[in-house]
Amino acid sequence: MKIQGQAALVTGGASGLGEATARELARQGAKVAVLDRNAELAAKVAADIGGVSFACDITDTASVEAALAGAEAAHGPARILMNVAGIGSAKRIVGKDGSAAPLEDFARVIQINLIGTYNVSRLFAARCAKLAPLEGDDGEGRGVMMFTASVAAFDGQVGQQAYSASKAGLAGMTLPMARDLAQHGIRVCTVAPGIFATPLLLELPEPVQQSLAASIPFPPRLGKPSEFAELACHIVSNGHLNGEVIRLDGALRMAAR
Ligand SMILES: NC(=O)c1ccc[n+]([C@@H]2O[C@H](COP(=O)([O-])OP(=O)(O)OC[C@H]3O[C@@H](n4cnc5c(N)ncnc54)[C@H](O)[C@@H]3O)[C@@H](O)[C@H]2O)c1
Fold first, then answer.
1. Distance 16 CA to ligand 1 centre (A)
2. What is the pLDDT confidence band of residue 139, given thresholds at 50, 70 and 90?
3. pLDDT tens digit string along 23-64?
4. Catalytic pick from 163, 193, 232, 254?
């Protein structure tokens, strides 16, 4: 699908990988709506790229529906959804004091990363399925969406039970959703990033950043958000990419800790 002129939605577009994706989509000519629970940062990114922003919690159906309706009013029906919003977490099952990890912590990560992503995707898909298919020799269909997993979906570290489960859920959801939405001409792919230089990581002490970078076989540096954004845009433009989970990690395989 050609990005130029399309309306696109980016969750988590206020920061990090989502912000880079919003900026790259806009650079390639998309009309971008930034959906994020951080209204202030979302508005700043949107203003920078000539897009629109919506304060939106991906786990809250009313707020997602309002954002999708607002984005459509501003830009017309969206055919591109980039699900990038997510949170990290690290918690041992048995704490230092011997107590069990609180169930609420596990549930919160699953609620945002997995259920929140599904929530936006189902509401987007229902709208997209009603659109006329795009004309073109490639059988371009109606739309495309991306999930953001993590290499932790496959090689999660000590304490990453909730995070890994949420991201493995996205990886597992990719093929069935692509198969389900094939009848509507909507493609679904997932990117599983390794370690990227986003605000959270750049706040870590320099030696920690260096040791993380050194753990990546090649290139031995943190991934650039622009590299993630390029892949996200390639997924849109390459009409044969569907139902696949793509690792973007410099051949990193995470150790146990
Ligand atoms: N940075 C990395 O190295 C890395 C590696 C693997 C996977 N990821 C994944 O990439 C995604 C982006 O990570 P990042 O490093 O850019 O993080 P980030 O914290 O810079 O950006 C995440 C954005 O998501 C938003 N968000 C969080 N919960 C939300 C909710 N419920 N509703 C709406 N918006 C919400 C935040 O406000 C924030 O703007 C996450 O899903 C993360 O798990 C990141």
1. 7
2. low
3. 999 999 999 999 999 999 999 999 999 999 999 999 999 999
4. 163
Residue 200 CA to ligand 1 centre (angstroms)? 9
Helical residues (DSSP H) of the chain, grouped into ranges: 16-27, 39-49, 61-75, 103-109, 117-128, 161-182, 199-202, 206-214, 225-237
- Per-residue pLDDT at 137 exceeds 70: no
* Res. 205 pLDDT band, cuts 50 70 90: confident
- The residue among 170, 37, 15, 145 whose CA lies nearest residue 83 is 145
Question: What was the pLDDT predicted at 138?
Answer: 67
Contacts of 167 (CB under 8 A, 6+ apart): 113, 149, 150, 152, 153, 156, 192
54 or 206, greater pLDDT: 54
47 Cα to the center of ligand 1, angstroms: 20
Residue 8 and residue 22: Cα distance in Å, rounded?
A: 8
Q: Token match 């093929």: residue?
A: 175
pTM, rounded to two decimals: 0.98
Find the 159 Cα to ligand 1 centroid distance in Å: 18
Nearest protein CA to atom 20 of ligand 1, as residue: 16
The H-or-E segment that residue 62 falls in is: helix 61-75
Closest ligand 1 atom number to CA of residue 18? 16
In this predicted structure, the answer to whether residue 190 has a pLDDT above a threshold of 80 is yes
The H or E element that residue 18 is part of is helix 16-27
The answer to whether residue 163 is catalytic is yes
- Average pLDDT, integer, range 114-126: 98
- Ligand 1 contacts (CB < 6 A) are 11-12, 14-18, 36-38, 56-59, 84-88, 112, 116, 148, 150, 193, 195-196, 198-201
